[in-house]
Amino acid sequence: MCEKPAPMLSLEQALEKILNVIEPLEHIESKQIMDAFGQTLAEAICSPLNVPPYRNSAMDGYAVCGEDLPESGEVELKLIGTSWAGTPFDGEMKTGESVRIMTGAKMPEGADTVIMQEHIEKTDSGIRIGDTHKTGQNVRHIGEDIAEGGIVLEPGKSLKAAELGLLASLGIAEVKVRRPLKVAFFSTGDELRAVGEPLEDGQIYDSNRYTIFGMLKGLGVEIHDLGVIRDKREDVEAAFNKAADIADVVFTSGGVSVGDADYVKETLEKLGQVNLWKIAMKPGKPLAFGRIGQAWFFGLPGNPVSAMATFYQVALPALRKLMGQTEVMPLTLKVPTLDSLKKRPGRLDFQRGILDYEKDQLVVRSIGPQGSHILSGMSRANCFIVIPAESGTVEAGTVVEVQPFASLMSA
Ligand code: AMP
Ligand code: MG
Fold it and tell me: What dotted CATH number matches 28-48+156-178?
């Protein structure tokens, strides 16, 4: 395991290995829909009703019979009542008649067409309309949005704002979802200090715990922050044991590259079945993946941009699969690059870029220096520019693949 030289894998191979062994969390629970926000649906939702449930008006206007519409000239119709949203007109409408109707109000029996209120002229006993209207216009039909019995949401869908609203529109108060994923993380490294502590020579602040926290927060999982762990054998071991006890997934950052002088690798050998890989991607070469006790483990590289890139590209699809989501891969777009992008053939590159508009066309620019320690660039960027492993420097004007950051989190 950990003593062997780390094999070099493509990102695709690493993802395949990980996604092949990870299965969605089994525990399923029933939740009120607001409490289920961010969780993954564990059942198919069939509509118990038609939406809309009755024919209604798309406009404020007048309900009329199509056969009364004049082919030319004008016609006068008698006004016999009003249909309000929530208080329908309860009579029947005959030819030669009209009913004042509000948006969303039920269409009266006999009416099949709505004339916008701006298109009528009021008369003493009703309305006058011209010859520019079509039978059936401005009417929303029963089941037009969703038909009764039809599947509206498939299992594996992450419940976000639109889904909560959709469920509510069907009168569904409770759904079956997979339980929230529990994730624990800590940082190790003798050079690291937590914010709030003074920095001495040769020390830096731990930032990975904060980026990991933020990325997990965006995913809606239950978070357990175990802090910065000093590089002492017993402390590292205790942190791993605690993390594996409370969480489904444990993240660490740092300590997995060749030549690391800390106890992460040693402890992993003792406590778990963990593979140490080199992934042919940039940033983010070293990665540890495996199991510690009942928990899955990801050892991210220490460099701040590498930790984020590996989280997004390798860990995120795995977390989504664990959560039961079916759409686990990020959205990619193809856009021309305004800048030349320096690269050597060899590794799949996730350069940081800025998606922008230039003369009405979506384009991407580089953020500039691409060092894996330059976290400020990650903040200025709004996308990864994905450059294939075999590619060399990409000339300005070339169409490249980009992954908007927004799409990495909001599936
Ligand atoms: P390592 O993989 O432990 O050799 O770390 C690689 C680089 O990332 C080193 O420069 C570390 O100081 C830095 N690093 C490791 N962990 C963190 C962290 N939690 N926050 C910020 N930088 C880190
Ligand atoms: Mg280290």
Answer: 3.90.105.10
The ligand that comes nearest to the alpha carbon of residue 252 is 1
In which residue ranges of the chain is CATH 3.40.980.10 found?
11-26+179-322
The atom of ligand 1 lying closest to the CA of 286 is: 2
Stretch(es) of the chain classified as CATH 2.170.190.11: 56-140
CA quadruple 127, 132, 138, 144: dihedral sign: positive
For domain 56-140, give the fold.
Molybdopterin biosynthesis moeA protein; domain 3 (2.170.190)
pLDDT tens-digit profile, the chain (411 residues): 445 677 899 999 999 999 999 999 999 999 999 999 999 999 999 999 999 999 999 999 999 999 999 999 999 999 999 999 999 999 999 999 999 999 999 999 999 999 999 999 999 999 999 999 999 999 999 999 999 999 999 999 999 999 999 999 999 999 999 999 999 999 988 899 999 999 999 999 999 999 999 999 989 899 999 999 988 889 999 999 999 999 999 999 988 776 666 688 888 889 999 998 999 999 988 999 999 999 999 999 999 999 999 999 999 999 999 999 998 888 999 999 999 999 999 999 999 999 999 999 999 999 999 999 999 999 999 999 999 999 999 999 999 999 999 888 754
Query: Nearest ligand to the C-alpha of residue 305?
Result: 1
Instruction: Give the C-alpha separation, 40 to 259, whole Å.
Output: 41
Cβ burial of 195 (10 Å; 0-12, 13-18, 19+) is exposed
Model's pTM, two decimal places? 0.87
Ligand nearest the Cα atom of residue 310: 1
Q: Which residues line ligand 1 (CB under 6 A)?
A: 187, 189, 191-192, 204, 206-209, 253-257, 260, 301-304
95 Cα to the center of ligand 1, angstroms: 80
Second CATH level (architecture) for the domain 333-404: Beta Barrel (2.40)
Q: Which of 185, 188, 192 to mutate to test the pocket of ligand 1 (most atoms within 8 A of CB)?
A: 192
Handedness of CA 285, 3, 315, 20 (dihedral sign): positive
Please, which residues have CB within 8 angstroms of residue 300's CB and are 6 or more apart in sequence? Answer: 208, 212, 251, 252, 253, 254, 256, 284, 287, 306, 307, 310, 311, 315
Q: How many A from CA of 260 to the centre of ligand 2?
A: 6
